[in-house]
Structure formats: C-alpha cells, structure tokens
C-alpha cells in the first residue's frame, strides 16, 4: 500500500521532498542498470565464494 506524502508536514519537519524523490528514482535506475549487465550468478559461484573464504581464511576481526 502506498503512503500519501503530506507536503505541509514534511516541509514543517525540514525534509526536502524533491531530494528524496530524485534519489529514489536514481537508485532504482542504478539498480536496474546493474541488473541488466550483471554476470550470471550460478550455483558454482554461490558455492565457491564461501568455500574460498573458509579455505583461504577470512583474516582476523581487526584485520591486523
């Protein structure tokens, strides 16, 4: 369900509606573009990444 934006309330709180609308649009556009050019994520890749981290070692928590 879509929420209605109340321009008077948002202006009273100091929220810039145009900024949030444009950043939402650009984020969706960016996500769509990345999805269309992404490499196919296969079962082999989904299994090889965690195995590589475990075998190779993830390092210490402090990275020292």
Write structural notes for this entry.
It is a single chain. The relative contact order is 0.06. This protein has one domain (7-56). It is elongated, with a radius of gyration of 21 Å. With 64 residues, it is mainly alpha-helical. It has helices spanning 7-13, 17-37, 43-56. The termini are far apart. The longest helix is centred in the middle third of the chain and has 21 residues, at 17-37.
What is the strand and helix layout of this fold?
Elements: H1 7-13, H2 17-37, H3 43-56
Shape: elongated
| Overall domain count | 1
Low-confidence stretches: none
Strand content is under 5%
Return the structural class: mainly alpha
What is the CA-CA span between the terminal residues? 48 Å
The largest β sheet comes out as:
none
Order of helices and strands: HHH
| Average pLDDT figure | 77
Enumerate how many helices there are, as a single number.
3
Rg of Cα set: 21 Å
* Number of DSSP-assigned strands: 0
Helix content: 55-70%
